[in-house]
Amino acid sequence: MKSAVLLCACSLLISVGAVGRYRGLEFLDPCPRRDPKLEACLARSANVLTEHFRQGLPQLGYPEVEPIILDELHISLGGGPDGYRAQFKEITAKGVSALRVTGLRTRLSDDEVQLQLALSIPKIRAAARYRSSGTLILVQASGAGDYWGEYDGVKAKVFIRAKPFMAQGYRYLRLQQLKMDFSVQNIKMGVENVRDSNPILLAALNLFINSNSQELLKEMKPDLRRKLVQVMSAFVEKLFAQVPYDAWITD
């Protein structure tokens, strides 16, 4: 569920991947635009930035990184009065800060910047409050309690399109489009602390959830992806507003 989870936060750090000697980010070197290995340089700078980002970057307004928080998600399986419905609130995720940029492609022109990123996160741990109703197969799944999830081998692809503009003598970027998709290799998840629950039914429910975790993630994905794109877009816009385009790629 959280899989993409901020994959987001760190993933967009690539967009300032070469901020060089700017505003306390002296640990990064700028990437020359005409460097034949520009993409490798940007990927390397992005990974250096994410390593520092794990301890927070207060100079960019991020004193701490984790946990990543989403307000709520919904899932719906089956129709009719017995169809399964679940709502997850106060969703927190940890582990996103271990993100690595494993691939990068860029297309630069005077009026547009495009970035395609491949990202990898070893493990994300998520927790949430949940409420559900209906049945899963023959298991009564109505109730409320705590949700937990462990997502191993998270992979994500992010596409960013932005346009340069001039402000106070500097070029900046304005985000035009952001798209993303993700996958999870292995998933473990379940519910616990369910009020007035039957231990046998709860065990059966958790068995079903883990046996069908990929299918459940597939049902969550549209809502989750929409939320993550919103979070990631806000993050990128904030970074673009603070770090001039001229600071991360040199002519």
UniProtKB/TrEMBL annotation:
Signal peptide: 1-20
GO BP annotations, alphabetical order: circadian rhythm
Pfam families registered for this protein in UniProt: JHBP
Source domain of life: Eukaryota
Keyword field contains Amino-acid biosynthesis: no
Keywords: Biological rhythms, Signal
Annotated InterPro entries: Haemolymph_juvenile_hormone-bd (IPR010562), To_sf (IPR038606)
GO cellular component: extracellular space
Family assignment from sequence similarity: Belongs to the TO family.
Annotated PANTHER family: PROTEIN TAKEOUT-LIKE PROTEIN
Record's protein name: Protein takeout-like
Species whose genome carries this gene: Dinoponera quadriceps
